[in-house]
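Lecture 7 notes: from sequence to structure.
We start with the chain below.
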Amino acid sequence: MEMYQMMKAKKFRSRKIWVALIFILAGLLLLGKNLEIIRPDIFQVVLSWQMLLVAIGILCFFRSQFIAGLIFAGIGGFFLVPLAAPVEPGWTGTWWPLLVIFGGVLILLRAVSSGNKKSRPHQHIHSKSSYISKDGFMVSDNIFGFVQQIVLEPVFKGARIKNVFGTTVLDLRKTSLEAAETYIDIECIFGGIELRVPNDWLVINELKATFGGSEDKRYIEKDTDYAHRLILRGKLTFAGVEIKR
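Predicted structure tokens for the same chain:
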């Protein structure tokens, strides 16, 4: 119960920080406009409803709500183009079928992901996914699928994970770290990766995100093992990584 209260308080504090940052950013923008530091045309773009949709999409990515994030960011970004760049008259009317294609891709992604989760939650999607584990090192490639792997080797020596339009779950709770530094190289595009890691592991995040993010949701133990580090590195594009217990 005490742990639950601590996690709840941490989540509430995080929300307050986000609200405070929004107020600070809004104030800086208004001050910049009044002092003529920010041009009126740029100010109009930044405070447009299109940019608001993009911002909501980015927040959804940080909360690992990838489909909702894609919808908000995609629609906002589409209608933001005529405001942010010189385009031909009637650009929106000409290119609106892109939104139809975008919607179709999202529906397909959702259908494939949901079907895989319900019918084959613990199996590989052999047609579009592959998984190799040798001497404690794991290589996983997942495209339009749902893959869940549990590492059972006594010592985990690292991994390379590629995830495109899918979900990959890697469970490291039944293994251990032996080297001072162990690396997981990640390339994730339009998808999500979930890492199940013991609470006493020290995880270093070196991931570079473009319209994405990562979050460590574990309860950090006092007896954290500082002698061994698990280092995450790579790129996230419209994607997210969650670290859980």
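Points to note: The chain is about 40% helix and 30% strand. The CA atoms of residues 45 and 84 lie 7 Å apart.
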